[in-house]
Amino acid sequence: MIRSMMASALLAPTAMAMVAAPVPAMAQAGGDLAAVQRSLQALTTMTADFTQTDRAGKVLTGTLTMKKPGKIRFQYEKGVPLLIVADGGALTFIDYSVRQVQRWPIKNSPLGVLIDPSRDIGRYAKVVPSADSRLLSVEANDPKHPEYGKITLVFARDAAAPGGLMLQGWVALDSQNNRTTIRLSNQRYGVAVDDKAFRFNDPRRSAARN
């Protein structure tokens, strides 16, 4: 269940990596989409606490560290033997309980939109209407490839955040309709982040020595 949740929330290829066709949009929606693009481009580093919830209600917590371009780390709470980290090239999922390591190109992950400042979200995303004018949601999916799933990024309008938008989290829906929600809190932008934060201990090496 936990491994499936990781794939749904963070690793499975989605329209963020795959869709190339432009998405028609109304003028206001287009302006909001451009605002999201500016916010993502303005974001250089960020740290936050996160809460991850799957469709069964299972909750995991941890800390998020991001440094662009291409670096991110999900450090799970004590007792959870999982780690997700990107070092600028590949996104790596480590399960220390079974000494398993899986890697994906960042471009094939929905997280690519967060840590690749050159990504043009206008090619694969659309604004989702909201009854709350303080929030802005952007959804990405490829109707030609439902197996890629769908992801929706949620922002709050905040003049103090990069580009005037603060990332609140995202919701991922895979092709089996398994929903995973990531919520962020205590976001801090522009903080000093050492590249060492994106290193990890490879459990396969320790296994080879045993």
List keywords for this structure.
single chain, eleven-stranded antiparallel sheet, alpha+beta, 39% strand, Outer membrane lipoprotein-sorting protein, 210 residues, LolA/LolB/LppX, outer membrane lipoprotein receptor (LolB), chain A, OM_lipoprot_carrier_LolA-like, 11 strands
Structure commentary:
Keywords: Lipoprotein, Signal. InterPro entries: LolA/LolB/LppX, OM_lipoprot_carrier_LolA-like. Residues 1-27 form the signal peptide. This is Outer membrane lipoprotein-sorting protein. The chain has 210 residues and is an alpha+beta fold. It has a single domain (30-187), classed as outer membrane lipoprotein receptor (LolB), chain A (Clam), CATH 2.50.20.10. Helices cover 20% and strands 39% of the residues. The chain has helices at residues 2-11, 15-18, 27-42, 112-115, 203-209, and strands spanning 45-54, 59-67, 71-76, 82-87, 90-95, 100-105, 125-128, 135-141, 150-157, 165-173, 179-189. The protein has an eleven-stranded antiparallel sheet with strand order 6-5-4-3-2-1-11-10-9-8-7, with helices on one face. The chain is globular and about 50 Å long. The protein starts with a helix and ends with a helix. The model is unreliable at 13-27 (pLDDT under 50).
